[in-house]
Amino acid sequence: MRIVLVGPPGAGKGTQAAYLAKNLSIPHISTGDLFRANISQGTPLGKQAKQFIDAGDLVPDSVTIGMARERMAQPDAVGGFLLDGFPRNVAQAEALDAALGEDDLALDAVLDLEVPEDEVVKRIAGRRICRNDSSHVFHVSYNPPKRDGVCDACGGELYQREDDNEDTVRKRLEIYHTQTEPIIDYYKAQGLVVTISALGKVTEVTDRAMEALKRDAAA
């Protein structure tokens, strides 16, 4: 299957992408990973991206699309892929359709993770990360540490990232609504959107997504 995963910040896209890709036996392709891989390998596209990033500018769509096309052409993606973080706007969605069309391919589904805005704010603003190891992540409500402000795993100090405060989260949501959310209507016009609730345990959301995708494929 060729799937695009969409949803607001805090919807759990990264977590769900990893589980879904494993269950569907397709690669998880995220823009963050694409940027890091191309920059670390010093590819032509990576060098272009680095110039923009170092200058504090947004990486142009043409560079992002170029990276995505190269990754989708690799052998492990021949049978399908799950795109996470791309496309971010309608122009990128149109470019993706055009790129796939050149190879007589098309998307099978666009999985929309739906979560109320207040829940997004609660999820992100309540997140606490260990200063010693950023993979140790807690939440003041959903996964609190045994001791307030102290990492259960290593005893390190837990802190809130600057961009995890409520004001910043709401600004990120505003950007999502104006730039990324319009791609849902774009794909709805093609009959590709499958919307599920992203509330509940990780495994519950994954099961919900798998069932929805199966129903969509059988329709």
In short:
AMP binds at residues 31, 36, 57-59, 85-88, 92, 161, 172. It is an enzyme of class 2 (transferase). This protein is α/β, with parallel strands linked by helices and 219 residues long.
Strands of the widest sheet, in order across it, are 2-3-1-4-8
| First-to-last CA distance | 14 Å
H and E string: EHEHHHEHEHEEEHHEH
Radius of gyration: 18 Å
Unreliable runs, pLDDT <50, ≥5 residues? Answer: none
Write the layout of secondary structure elements.
Blueprint: E1 2-6, H1 13-24, E2 28-30, H2 31-41, H3 44-54, H4 61-72, E3 81-84, H5 90-102, E4 109-114, H6 117-125, E5 127-130, E6 137-139, E7 158-159, H7 166-180, H8 182-188, E8 193-197, H9 202-218
Parallel strand pairs: 1-3, 1-4, 2-3, 4-8
Antiparallel strand pairs: 5-6, 5-7
Helix pairs in contact: 1-9, 2-3, 2-4, 3-4, 6-7
What this model shows, in words?
- The chain has 219 residues and is of the alpha/beta class.
- The protein has a single domain (2-27, 74-218), classed as 3-Layer(aba) Sandwich (Rossmann fold).
- It is built from nine helices and eight strands.
- Helix 3 (44-54) packs antiparallel against helix 4 (61-72) and helix 6 packs across helix 7 (166-180).
Structure keywords:
alpha/beta, Rossmann fold, five-stranded parallel beta sheet, three-stranded antiparallel beta sheet, AMP kinase activity
